[in-house]
Fold:
Amino acid sequence: MARRRLLILGGGFGGLDVARAVGGSREARGYWDTLLVDKENFFQFNPLLPAVAVGAVETRHIVYPLREMSRHRGIRFHKNKAIRIDLDRRVVELHNGLEESWDTLVIATGSVTNWFGVPGAEQHARPFKTLVDAMTLRARVVELFEMAEQARSDAQRRRLLAFVMVGGGVTGVEVAAELIEMTRETLLPRYPSLSPSHVSVTVVEGGDRLVPAARPEHSRYVHRFLTRRGVRVELGAAVREVEPHAVRLADGRRLEAFTIVWTAGVTPPALVRELPLQFHRDGRVVVDEYLRARRPDGTPVEHVHVIGDCAASPRPDGRMQPQLSQTAIAMGSHVGRTLVREARHQPAEKFAFKDAGYIISLGKHSSVLDLFGLPLSGKLAWLAWAGAYLIKMVGFRKQIEVGIDHVTHFFFEHDTSQIMNRRAVLSDDELNLALVDETRTLSPAASTESSQPLPPFRARSRCAPS
Ligand SMILES: Cc1cc2nc3c(=O)[nH]c(=O)nc-3n(C[C@H](O)[C@H](O)[C@H](O)COP(=O)(O)OP(=O)(O)OC[C@H]3O[C@@H](n4cnc5c(N)ncnc54)[C@H](O)[C@@H]3O)c2cc1C
Structure:
C-alpha cells in the first residue's frame, strides 16, 4: 500500500516535535511519507535570542540543523518557503514555483512581528524575531559605541547611544536587561570617552505594567530591577507613530532614539492569515480539540492541523493557550501522537494542556519565574532558568555548548569584537547621520532624562517581589 503523504510546514518548536514523533515510530514511518518544509535549514531556540543579542550565548549554539534530525528520523526535508496553501486542491505552493501535495497537512509556521498598523513602525523599527535580528542588534550596538567613542560632542554621543524597546512584554524586558548589563558591565569600561550619561535604554509599554502576563508582583520586580540599573520605563505609553529615529507617543511626546527595537507582539504569517478559516481576534487560526483548523462556520477541516503560534486553542477557562514554546511543543507532540495513532488505526485523542508558567531572564544571574505555581526571583531563579533551557535544548551537543556558554559568561564579560561590516548594521542615511557631529540636543527621551547621569550600577543587587 502506498504511504500517505504527510506535509509539515515549519520545523520550529511545534513542527519539530511532530516530525520527531512520526519519525520515531516504526509503524508511523511505514504509514506516512513525511516531508518537512522550512524556509531555514535549522531549528532556532528563541528563548535564548536576547542572550545571543549581547554575545552571552554563541549564535550557532542555539540552532540545530533540521537535516540532521530528518536523517536520523527517516523523513524528508526540503529547505523552501511556502507561499500559498490551497486547501481545496490540497497543495502548497513553494517559493520556486514547485508544488507539494498532501493527504495530511500540519501548519506550524510560527509567527511574524505584528506592527499593529503603526505608521512607520515596519520601516524604522527593528524586529527581534530571528537569529539575524539578534546578531545585527549586537553588531549595531558595538558599532554605535565605536562611533560614539569618536564623536566630538556629548550631544552626538547621547544621540547614537539612545535605544528604545517598544513593548514591555517578556522579549522587550529581556532585551532591555541584557542590553543595559552589556553596556554597563562590558562596553562602558572599554570606551574611555563614554560615560553612563551618554547611554539611554527606554522600554515603552502601552499597558499599566511590564510583562502583563506575569504575576503583578513579578511585574513590579522587573520594573524595579530595570530602573535600578538605569533603564527608563514608560508605562501607559501607546506608540502612535515611528519616525526614522524617534517614537511618537499618543500623548504627543516624542522619544528620540537612534535604535528602536519592536518587541510589541506577533501574528501568524500572511500565508496563514489569508486562508478561508476561522480566526481569533489576534489573527490566530481557531482550532478544535483535535487541533484541526476550523472553517468560518466552525466545522473542522479534516486532515489539516494548525499548531504553535499560529493556533488559537481554547482553554477550559475560555481564554486561548499562550503563544509560548511550551505550548507549541505540547501541540506538536500531541499531533505527532495523533498521527502515530492513525498509523496504528487507533482513534485520535483530545488535546489538553496546562502551561507550566513562565521564566523571564534579566541578564546575568537574575530571573523571575512562576513554575507550577511556585514564584521565585533572583539568582536561584536564574539557575532554574539556565537549567530549564539547557534541558530543553535540542540535541546533546547543543546542551553542552550552551552549558559552556553559561559557565563562561558567569566568569567572564561579553566579547566586544564587532565582526559584521558597518554597512550591514547601519543604513546609508544612518551612517551619514552618525558621522555628522551635530551639537543639537536630543529630547525628550535622550535629552531631558537620559542626559542625567544614570543611577549607580548595582550589578549584584537583589530585589524580592513585594
Ligand atoms: C525573541 C523571542 C524570545 C522568546 N522567548 C520565549 C521564552 O522565553 N519562553 C517561551 O516559552 N517562548 C518564548 N518565545 C516564543 C516561542 O519562541 C514561540 O512561542 C515558539 O517558537 C512557537 O513555536 P512554533 O513552532 O509555532 O513557531 P517557530 O518555533 O517560530 O517555528 C516556525 C518555523 O516555521 C518556519 N517558517 C515560517 N514561515 C514559513 C514558510 N512560509 N515556509 C516554510 N517555513 C516557514 C520558520 O523558519 C520556523 O522554523 C520567544 C520568541 C521570541 C521571538
The chain is about 35% helix and 20% strand. The chain has two domains: 4-39+80-111+268-355, 121-265+358-449. The chain has a mean pLDDT of 89. The two ends are 64 Å apart (CA to CA).
